[in-house]
Design goal:
InterPro entries: Osmoadaptation_assoc (IPR053178). By secondary structure, the chain is mainly alpha-helical. It folds into 2 domains: 1-130 and 308-323, no CATH class; 137-306. It contains 14 helices and no strands. It starts with a helix and ends with a helix.
């Protein structure tokens, strides 16, 4: 076992060296460099002894992806990796209070080109890709809401952000209406948690997580909407936890569910305090910053200013990917 671990570490070290050589090369960065960076990120994510090294790898992949541009997503391999990277970048942006560049029109168009109707590739099905494409637009609004609460924005700014979050909720509603129907088909005329948990992929729980978050952030900037937004968030959290209970335990699937389950638990544990806010806040006042901070801390989400991006020059990028 120790010998196998040593061999694995040696190969991992060699992979890092080859990646750094490629990044230091005078030749342009190609897709193989991006592939390598993503594989190293996956290795760190699955290696239980790792902590946050995968974040640095994903940041390296982000810079490489940006340098290649949305118009270069052409081959099937490139589409597969873009679809996978969208999930990583969206979740990362959500938890680190950052914008997600995949929300831009050009990248949204590129994401939609990854859709396939081949039933053997569920991760690139229309419901999955469109869910993550919509989710990629959410971190920007979450970041703006965080700033509005922290900096006590004016009512007109709050109203504009509220409209944007409401529009995002409308997009989620349309997605859910279309996806639930295609998920269960004609065999299940009645929708319930057991049906959805066993018939569909984990994408539905991930959708519910973003639906819950969007409602929570709307409530955060306008507590007077608590009667609707908090109810929606709590209901989504309950369903996520029920899905988690119904699904069979599996180490890989559990990792995929961690994101949605952590959100659900944070909402469940803070709903009493958040519900009270509707009675103590005026229409144009946000939720109390201390209450918002406690929830974000429980969630594991930073609310500080966006950290400076990792260096974009090739040498420093390679150094940033080292564990």
């Amino acid at each position: 076992m120790a010998f196998a671990q040593t061999q694995l570490e040696k190969r991992y070290g060699c992979a890092l060296q080859v990646l750094q050589q490629a990044l230091n090369s005078s030749e342009g960065i190609d897709w193989t460099v991006w592939y390598t960076t993503l594989l190293l990120a996956l290795f760190e994510l699955l290696e239980t002894s790792s902590h946050q090294a995968w974040i640095f790898h994903s940041q390296g992949a982000k810079h490489i992806l940006l340098s290649l541009g949305p118009n270069n997503i052409k081959s099937d391999y490139e589409k597969i990796l873009l679809a996978a990277q969208c999930q990583i970048l969206t979740v990362e942006a959500t938890f680190f209070n950052r914008d997600c560049f995949l929300s831009s029109p050009a990248w949204q168009k590129a994401l939609h080109t990854t859709i396939t109707h081949d039933s053997k590739i569920p991760d690139r099905s229309e419901p999955v890709v469109t869910m993550w494409a919509t989710a990629a637009c959410a971190p920007e609004f979450f970041k703006r809401a965080t700033k509005a609460i922290r900096d006590h924005h004016q009512p007109d700014q709050i109203a504009e952000l509220s409209d944007d979050l409401s529009a995002l909720l409308d997009r989620w509603c349309k997605w859910r209406e279309k996806w639930e129907g295609s998920l269960v088909g004609d065999d299940f005329p009645t929708l319930h948690d057991t049906t959805l948990a066993t018939a569909g992929p984990t994408i539905y729980s991930q959708f519910l997580a973003f639906w819950a978050l969007t409602n929570r952030f709307l409530l955060a900037i306008q507590p007077h909407r608590a009667s609707v937004a908090e109810t929606n968030a709590v209901d989504a959290a309950r369903r996520i936890l029920e899905f988690d209970r119904l699904r069979q335990a599996d180490s890989v699937i559990d990792r995929c569910r961690t994101f949605s389950v952590s959100i659900a638990r944070s909402i469940e544990q803070t709903t009493t305090e958040w519900t009270i806010q509707q009675n103590v806040s005026h229409e144009w006042r946000t939720i109390q910053p201390a209450v918002f901070l406690r929830w974000n801390t429980l969630l594991g989400r930073t609310i500080h200013d966006e950290a400076q991006d990792l260096p974009t020059n090739k040498i420093n990028m390679a150094q940033a990917t080292a564990p």
